[in-house]
Design goal:
This protein is mainly α. The protein contains three helices and no strands. The longest helix has 28 residues. The chain is elongated, with a radius of gyration of 15 Å.
Amino acid sequence: MYHTKLEQLNALTNRLSAIARTLGAEYFALDVIEPTLALGESPTDPACRDVTPERFLKLEKELVRGKTEVVCLFVVFATFT
């Protein structure tokens, strides 16, 4: 089950990274783009990533926020062209 959640986490993080390239590196906080360690894991040996429901909820909210910003930028751009 962990590996399935890890794949989902990687897909979500990749989508956020793609949006960050459009909006700029400073749009999202670093903890949104970078994977976080599971509770109790050592930073020198990051074997397990945080795949808790709370982490997914936070990333999904950031994804919605980023998509909204991209749409708003598109509307503004389309209005002026």
